[in-house]
Specification:
19 strands; 637 residues; 23 helices; alpha/beta; 5-stranded parallel beta sheet
């Protein structure tokens, strides 16, 4: 066994009692929480924090070479906060504010608490975030920091965990350490494999990880496992593999009437039970504090000079030829290459469709900043969050329809202050023959729900390139919707497309109805404009390229100057462009009509499907005439 002078078993045992004391007192005071889930991992995390393994400067949490700790089992937050109390940066008084309104010690870790790497609590996501942080350390910043992820056994049935396990092995993330707390009991009883540690060992090793099976309450065993994890005495043949420490633990460990007992998940002790429990813990030295060692310097270039958005380079000007059509998905790839010199922290992830999303254009030019995530969208989004939290600007692309399976990761990312750029291609029925399974028809609605999120829907190559650049500049989550088929170039190479704007492409004092469209349906609106013009019917056409935030001023003007508004979108009726427009100008008494995908989609040619769903130019013309005839018939004398 490798023991060094930092390992002081007696002190670690005392700190373990103190941490259990903090867990029990804080959760009883709160009246809610997960004390037993926290207590099962107490030795595991006490040894990590105070056994000379973890390296972090607590006074400078943003220091790039700090080791990273992620509580994937976020319900063990009482343990998380208790560790920092034992480290001397949280007071016992503050611990008693756990779960109270206004406290930074929330029910599951959030960024309100400065030592939180990422908000967790939806199980099965922490390891993917760890993959992103480990990728950053090994391949991008070239820093020696380690990433530790505390994982609960219940969440090992989540498919997202196994996506992350596969990718970590593929990228040989030997700087990633999983700590699997197998306490046997989930919320309603025993987990799938209970205390069968061999079942976990076989499965995880089959995915290419090194495993270490230990008693999760034996400090010497825990310490030796960590020593191996950080490289001391590690078998050279097993290097380049991530490590999973598989620890047998007992839920509620340390208190006899809680230990390994079902029915205590998410339940706290009343004051009489607390008094009894604290008698078992006695003696507890509430003045005792542990020490976390500071990290080494690491990569001096990264440590001394943080790369900022815009390193003095300016992207080259656009040179699109209006006589040639181009798909917006192809423009996305071109834009990444063009702006990369200015935004050197861009990292591109794709889910094995880069030759369709055209992320491969960037890959060919900048392979060191591209990571293939394969068909594992949940892991891709979680990894992007990990990269984002380490200062990168991830552009994440796949077919728009497939982001729906990763929506839990997407919605959780917003609670971590994420700066991710999602790009969904193959949207709407206009993709044609591939059929309904490949059609993104819910994506605008999905991304519009994100707090302070941005949703952009460019129609041509120029607006796409400009909006990709705007997305890179913007701090926060952005969704860009791209189109499969080639479309005409509408705009000039020097046009600007600010987030929150729109473009009014056709207007006159005689406009009677406004058509609001974006992407593929904008071209249908322009066709309708030309046909109606022949009949002396003037319509206004607005390109609503920014769906969120929406250009309220332009929409209000249209609402006051024309008799009605028709929204046209290659998206389901709920939650898309129509709802965005309607909510933006709800204070103005104008009729707003919706043309959207309302029938079950089928395979077919794009033109056939646009016609079938009644979002084509002919459908727009029909709707305009129907409105005029029904609500504004000609006056006869």
């Amino acid at each position: 066994m490798i023991i060094n002078k930092v390992f002081n078993q007696q002190k670690l045992e005392q700190l373990g009692r103190l941490i259990r004391y903090f867990i029990l007192v804080s959760t009883t005071q709160a009246g809610s929480g997960h004390p037993t889930s926290s207590m099962s991992a107490t030795e595991l995390m006490t040894a990590l924090f105070f056994g000379g393994i973890l390296r972090a400067d607590l006074k400078n949490h943003d220091y790039p070479n700090n080791d990273r700790v992620i509580f994937s089992k976020g319900h063990a937050s009482p343990l998380f906060y208790a560790l920092y109390a034992a480290a001397g940066v949280v007071t016992e008084e503050e611990l008693k504010s756990l779960r109270k309104f206004g406290s930074r010690l929330e029910g599951h870790p959030t960024l309100a608490f400065p030592y939180t790497e990422a908000a967790t609590g939806s199980l099965g996501q922490g390891l993917a975030i760890g993959v992103g942080m480990a990728l950053n350390a090994k391949y991008l910043d070239k820093l020696p920091y380690k990433t530790y992820v505390l994982i609960g056994d219940s969440e090992m049935t989540e498919g997202s965990q196994w996506e992350s396990i596969q990718l970590a092995a593929h990228y040989q993330l030997d700087n990633l350490v999983g700590i699997l707390d197998i306490n046997r009991l989930g919320q309603r009883g025993e987990t799938m494999y209970g205390h069968d540690l061999t079942a976990y060992k076989k499965r995880i090793e089959a995915f290419g990880w090194e495993t270490i099976v230990i008693d999760g309450h034996s400090l010497p065993e825990i310490f030796e496992a960590y020593q191996t994890a950080v490289g001391n005495g590690r078998d050279p043949s097993l290097r380049q593999k991530p490590i999973m420490i598989i620890a047998k633990t007992l839920k509620g460990k340390g208190i006899s009437f809680l230990e390994n007992q079902d029915g205590w998940h998410g339940k706290t002790l009343n004051h009489d039970e607390l008094k009894k429990a604290l008698q078992e813990l006695d003696p507890v030295d509430t003045t005792l504090r542990g020490e976390i060692l500071k990290p080494e310097n690491g990569n001096k270039e990264i440590l001394q000079t943080k790369k900022q958005v815009g390193d003095g380079f300016k992207p080259s000007p656009l040179q699109y030829d209006k006589s040639k059509e181009a798909a917006t998905r192809r423009a996305y790839g071109n834009a990444l290459v063009r702006i990369y010199p200015e935004f050197s922290n861009i990292v591109v992830l794709d889910a094995e469709v880069s030759n369709s999303t055209f992320a491969e254009t960037f890959k060919k030019q900048n392979p060191d900043h591209y990571f293939e995530m394969f068909v594992a969208e949940q892991n891709m989004v979680g990894t992007a969050l990990g990269l984002s939290r380490r200062g990168k600007i991830p552009f994440v692309s796949t077919f728009a329809a497939f982001f729906s399976r990763a929506f839990d990761q997407i919605r959780m990312s917003q609670y971590s202050g994420s700066n991710i750029k999602f790009v969904g291609s193959h949207v709407g029925v206009s993709i044609g023959e591939d059929g309904a399974s490949q059609m993104g028809l819910e994506d605008i609605a999905m991304f519009r729900t994100l707090l302070n999120g941005v949703v952009l829907y460019p129609c041509d190559a120029i607006s796409t390139e400009k909006l990709v650049e705007e997305a890179a500049k913007h701090q926060g989550n952005v969704y860009i919707r791209t189109t499969r088929k080639d479309t005409p170039i509408l705009y000039n190479n020097n046009d600007d497309f600010p987030i929150g704007g729109s473009k009014t492409l056709k207007t006159s004092p005689e406009d009677i109805i406004t058509i609001v469209a974006a992407g593929i349906t904008l071209f249908e609106a322009l066709k309708a404009y030309e046909e109606l013009k022949k009949e002396n019917i003037a319509i206004r056409v607005i390109d609503l390229y920014s769906v969120k935030p929406v250009d309220i001023q332009t929409l209000e003007q249209a609402a006051r100057q024309t008799k009605a508004i028709i929204t046209v979108e290659d998206h389901f009726a709920e939650g898309g462009i129509h709802d965005a427009v309607q909510s933006a100008i709800s204070n103005i008494p104008v009729q707003i009509f919706s043309l959207a995908v309302t029938k079950m989609p089928h395979s077919g040619k794009p033109e056939e499907l646009l016609e079938y769903e009644e979002i084509s130019s002919s459908a727009i013309i029909k709707k305009v005439k129907e409105i005029l005839q029904k609500y504004y018939p000609p006056v006869t004398y």
